[in-house]
Design goal:
The chain is α+β, with helices and mostly antiparallel strands and 211 residues long. The chain has helices at 2-7, 12-48, 105-110, 124-142, 168-210; strands at 50-74, 77-92, 95-102, 147-152, 156-161. It is 53% helix and 29% strand. Strands 1-2-3-5-4 form a five-stranded mixed barrel. The longest helix is centred in the last third of the chain and has 43 residues, at 168-210. It is elongated.
Length: 211
């Protein structure tokens, strides 16, 4: 029995391999828990009451109100400019009531009153031109054509999004990479144990042959 226990003692290299495997297992589990609480759960909540629909433009207009944005012109150069508010009102295939269109969830949170936030330029006139170009796009190029939009009846029943920030690809990566880390750790531990077991058996067979 004493000889058996000594034979199953791991070498320094095998011990390091086992530690690496357990470290990857712990990292994978902690990553799954962290991403689940900080990212995956809010993303699923945003998607929970939502779905997709066909949208048709009802009206495109600029409000008289202007909003502030922050531009950067260098490492230590920042300033504030202003842009006009563009609103794109649409009708969805799920409801006859008009809804305000937004680029995505991030834009909706930044400025829920407008449909578009231009890249902030130092010149207010350039910002106005960008908004006017977007207005012409929705009026002339899209017009009465239907397009896919997304909504969430529980969180924002009067707003729809042109695209989702938390799409299926993001959710997949949130789950995939921690799982891969966990499985690699399990694989390292299993292979180390199997290799040690085979080595011990080979040594035992060798001793029997010599006897």
């Amino acid at each position: 029995m004493a000889r058996s226990r000594v034979a199953y003692e791991y070498t320094e290299a095998e011990d390091k391999s086992m530690r690496l495997g357990f470290l990857l297992i712990a990292a994978g589990l902690l990553s799954l828990l962290g991403l689940g609480c900080c990212w995956l759960r809010p993303a699923l909540q945003e998607r929970g009451g939502g779905g997709s629909a066909n949208c048709t433009v009802l009206a495109v207009r600029q409000l008289g109100e202007r909003f502030a944005c922050t531009f950067s012109c260098g490492a230590a150069c920042r300033g504030t400019a202003r842009y006009p508010c563009l609103q794109v009102l649409v009708r969805t295939s799920r409801s006859s009531a008009p809804a305000l269109l937004h680029e995505d969830e991030r834009q909706l949170r930044t400025n829920p009153k407008c449909s578009y936030i231009p890249p902030c330029a130092r010149d207010d006139q350039e910002n106005s031109e960008n908004v006017t170009y977007k207005q012409k796009y929705w009026k002339e190029k899209v017009g009465s054509q239907s397009f896919t939009c997304y909504f969430n009846q529980h969180l924002r029943p009067d707003d729809v999004m042109l695209k989702r920030t938390h799409d299926e690809t993001v959710l997949l990566h949130c789950f995939l990479w921690p799982l891969v880390t966990f499985l690699v750790g399990v694989l390292i531990v299993v292979l180390t144990i199997c290799a040690k077991s085979l080595a011990v058996r080979a040594e035992a067979i060798k001793k029997k042959k010599h006897l």
